[in-house]
Amino acid sequence: MTLTLDEIRALPKVALHDHLDGGLRPQTVLELAAEAGHELPAQDAEALGDWFYEAADSGSLVRYLETFDHTVAVMQTADALRRVAREFVLDQAADGVVYAEARWAPEQHLRQGLSPEQAVRAVADGLAEGEAEVAAQGRTVVARQIVTGMRHADRSAEIARLAVAHRDSVCGYDIAGAEDGFPPSRHLEAFDVLKRASARWTVHAGEAAGLDSLWEAVHLAGAQRLGHGVRIVEDVTLAEDGTRHLGPLAAFVRDTGIPLEVCPSSNLQTGIASTIEEHPVGLLVDLGFAVTVSCDNRLMSRTTLSRELALCCEAFDWDLEQLEVLQLTALDHAFLPLPDRARLLEQVVLPGFAG
């Protein structure tokens, strides 16, 4: 029997791929825009939420990314960043998430004079405030930030150095933005910085571009996780006898356990598949890939992690055991020190699935 949304919400969950600037509350966007003097396409929270969803629901990654013009515009001060980060934690905890990584690009938040260091500290403060507020309610949530270099820009190495310099509050690094035409090989200096510092990093790949992008992410950038990664199925063929054959790249990703940060609803909006039933995540799980499920952008996809998992349960007949495997996989690959992961596992995740 399919698990209900409420039953899934009650389970402890791990969110690895969630953009800070893609998860604002519509009311928060309105209030921050009023303070900043930024014009929005709608003037009440419900209509604004509808606009973000409909604008993102175009089938184009480029159009999808345009919605961020408004959220980034209202996140240009330390107070705004701190508020958005705090609410990120509260909203994740309300959905039953016990560990969440918030990724964002500091270089996009400097228009009003913040330095990258000040911006990172503001987000760190907001995440800590959210954790403390949740703890005061007797619940557990751990939140960390991933800093992102924009792949169409030239600051990726600088942001990598920022991640290393602030590794006490920054758990990892990412490159994001328009993937097609901006391959990981443009940012090898950044990945060299990270490798030399023994840092942690993930790479957006296999969303708007295919196997070439994934190959570079894995073999040139040394990705420890793949953001989305779902187009790895282009290296999987169906034989006449109905069996699946993995090409060399797909086999390497599966066999070495490089985790995929899959975001189903977001992928539907950017054209990966037409329906959730056609989404590659079901096949990837069946083939034994290290699959994790996240939201990508909760505002633009009007979703939560519980909703993403509920959609997949209905489409692929996932049961409680499969959901537990997904959360254990995500926690195992979280950019969190091993002792902290072990504590979450023993104190929160396993007891939560045991009922």
From TrEMBL:
Cofactor dependence: Zn(2+)
This protein's record includes keyword Zinc: yes
Keyword Chloroplast: no
GO process terms (BP): adenosine catabolic process; hypoxanthine salvage; inosine biosynthetic process; nucleotide metabolic process
GO CC, one annotated term: cytosol
Keyword set, alphabetical order: Hydrolase, Metal-binding, Nucleotide metabolism, Zinc
Residue ranges constituting the Adenosine deaminase domain according to the UniProt record: 12-348
Gene Ontology terms for molecular function: adenosine deaminase activity; metal ion binding
InterPro entries with a match to the protein in the record: A_deaminase_dom, Ado/ade_deaminase, Metal_Hydrolase
Enzyme Commission (EC) number: 3.5.4.4
Protein family per UniProt: Belongs to the metallo-dependent hydrolases superfamily. Adenosine and AMP deaminases family.
Protein name: adenosine deaminase
Species of origin: Auraticoccus cholistanensis
Organismal lineage: Bacteria, Bacillati, Actinomycetota, Actinomycetes, Propionibacteriales
